[in-house]
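Let us walk through a complete example step by step. Step one is to write down the protein sequence. Step two is to encode the small molecule, glutathione, as a SMILES string so that its atoms and bonds are unambiguous. Step three, shown after the inputs, is the structure prediction itself.
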Amino acid sequence: MLKAILPALTAIALVAGAASAQAGTIETIKSRGQLICGVNTGNPGFAQPDSKGVYTGFEVDQCRAVATAITGKADNVKYVPLTSQNRFTALQSGEVDMLARSATWSLTRESTLNLTFPVVTFYDGQAFMVTKKSGVKSAKALKGATVCALTGSTSELNLADFSRANKLEIKPVSYDSLDGARDAFLGGRCDAYTTDMSGLAATRAAISNPDDYVILPEVISKEPISVAVRQDDPAFIHAVRWTMYAMIEAEELGITAATVDQHMKDENPETKRLLGATPGLGTSMGLSDTWAADTIRQVGNYGESFERNIGTKTPLKLERGLNDLWTKGGLIYAPPFR
Ligand SMILES: N[C@@H](CCC(=O)N[C@@H](CS)C(=O)NCC(=O)O)C(=O)O
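Step three: the predicted structure of the complex.
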């Protein structure tokens, strides 16, 4: 009997699965009235809550942008702090809709974790920090050193490759939390701390005696940081991808939060399509035609978000570098809005 009904049950399960995928993340977010966004537990400039629990940062702006594109309001976000270790399971299990949490896009994170990395939002690379008094000037001088890293990060894997390739016999020590790794390093339990350069800059900016620490010149990996979403919902993937690209396109077209309403009247056909004066792009993705204009008005363009949170006038003092527009020698480039 069971044997006879099994195929039917399987068929029902498949249809139910397809139906729930069809219900779709966009619809779920609209009816819930909130995007649930996985962020860092506290990485200054990227994602950090203040004393009232209000999150700000470059990655927080990515959550706010997607919330605006889907619900019309940047504040419609629930933030879920996640560690390097538990971030991908939280996304896979549906605890969060999206991750904006210093996640490097890599092959196996797509092929084995069933995640999609829709757009590179920040080009980073891994480096090392040591104390100034150690006198170490190069990562190649870290022979036999104890190096702190975060569990479940690409940093752990690159550290092992770098040690092997340069015969350094580095002793890695992994920590589940940023606080754990940083405190171990600052407390002298590791000779060096390794993570993405942006993370080192954030750590250095947050300590009381930053001049006692140096970031070594070697960049040992490519860390293209992307937002991440589940693979099973193309409509949501498109919405996330093109919202990030809308912020980039706005910078390229010179449209800022303050000037977006003025630009509504522009004759430039690209501007008209982006801002919805020529309708069709937003609605083709299941969003409103003002999705991009609303996002730029409430969150700003890519460059505004960069400068406000992590740029040269912030404690992180990051130059645009690779994260400048392609028209200015960087890699930030949006495909056509048409
Ligand atoms: N990009 C790497 C490293 C990610 C990572 O561990 N980033 C650190 C520093 S940039 C971080 O987010 N720490 C904050 C925290 O653990 O809350 C990856 O995807 O594995």
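Step four is interpretation. The chain has two domains: 20-123+224-328, 126-221.
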